[in-house]
């Protein structure tokens, strides 16, 4: 296929984290009613519930830094993309970043992509 | 849907890591010709290439310990499952485990599942 999955994943995550870190209430367009988010031990379904959860997270300032980003096509025919990110999260006035792992499953729709699956975990040591 | 995705993912990963840690040359049945493995910066396709890569890894003894395991259905209709694992890897005589993150995308086939996507990354700090 002609799609460059790695470049697409890099473009998506760059946009996603920039939007998350500046105003995460505006991420709703990236999810659909059947989209799922696992955030630590919480499980949410649907754009509205997912955004409510993200907005409710107990920090004001947040910055994501990507350490590794890997992408693969997630189906032989439909152009969907699986992305795994490992990175660091810096919140509020904390000096020490927290390491995290996150998976996005992106589904093509009308020339763009939406998030069908989103799984986020902090890496405790 | 009636499938318990979390239980299925736990059963799969338990089997996968037990087989990996005892004899990883026998994992070939879990992959197909169109399966993909990203292992750190290496990208492989096909059961044969994937197993060659896994067997070539430079350790004799290996043990995986799961820290977190999350699962979601990866499509509205076909019963496929997305799994994200964070865990610790202990190799040979090393005393300090290495943290890792891994994604499996499992596709149903004949009453069982095979691995279509497999992405593995050590978490460097």
Looking at this protein, list some descriptive labels.
homodimer; 125 residues; alpha+beta; six-stranded mixed beta sheet; 2 helices; 6 strands; globular; protein transport (chains A, B)
Number of helices of chain A: 2
Q: What's the rounded overall pLDDT mean of chain A?
A: 95
Q: What strand line-up does the widest sheet of chain A have? A: 2-1-6-5-4-3
Quaternary state of this entry equals homodimer
Helical residue percent band of chain A: 10-25%
Q: Uncertain segments of chain A of ≥5 residues (pLDDT<50)?
A: none
Proportion of residues in β-strands of chain A: over 45%
- Give the structural class of chain A: alpha+beta
Strand segment tally of chain A: 6
**Radius of gyration over C-alpha positions of chain A, nearest whole angstrom:** 14 Å
What string gives the helices and strands of chain A in order? HEEHEEEE
Query: Which chains share the greatest interface?
Result: A-B, 25 and 25 residues
Largest sheet of chain A: 6 strands, mixed
**Overall form of chain A:** globular
Could you tell me how far the N terminus lies from the C terminus of chain A, measured between alpha carbons in angstroms? Answer: 40 Å
Structure notes:
- The structure is a homodimer of 125-residue chains.
- Chain A has 125 residues and is an alpha+beta fold.
- The first copy, chain A, is built from two helices and six strands.
- Chain A has helices at 5-23, 47-56; strands at residues 31-39, 42-45, 62-73, 81-91, 98-109, 112-122.
- The first copy, chain A, has a six-stranded mixed sheet, covered by helices on one side.
- The first copy, chain A, is globular.
- The model of chain A has no long low-confidence stretch (mean pLDDT 95).
- Chain A binds chain B through residues 34, 36, 38, 67-68, 70, 72-76, 82, 84, 86, 99, 101, 103, 105, 116-117, 119, 121, 123-125, and chain B through 34, 36, 38, 67-68, 70, 72-76, 82, 84, 86, 99, 101, 103, 105, 116-117, 119, 121, 123-125.
């Amino acid at each position: 296929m002609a799609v460059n999955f790695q470049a697409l994943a890099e473009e998506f995550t760059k946009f996603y984290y920039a939007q998350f870190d500046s105003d995460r209430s505006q991420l709703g367009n990236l999810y659909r009613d059947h989209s799922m988010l696992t955030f630590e031990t919480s499980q949410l379904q649907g754009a509205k519930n997912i955004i409510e959860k993200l907005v409710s997270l107990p920090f004001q300032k947040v910055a994501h830094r990507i350490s590794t980003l890997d992408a693969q096509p997630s189906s032989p025919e439909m152009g969907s993309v699986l992305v795994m990110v490992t990175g660091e999260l810096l919140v509020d006035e904390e000096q020490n970043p927290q390491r995290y792992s996150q998976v996005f499953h992106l589904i093509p729709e009308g020339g763009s992509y939406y998030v069908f699956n989103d799984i986020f975990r902090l890496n405790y040591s």
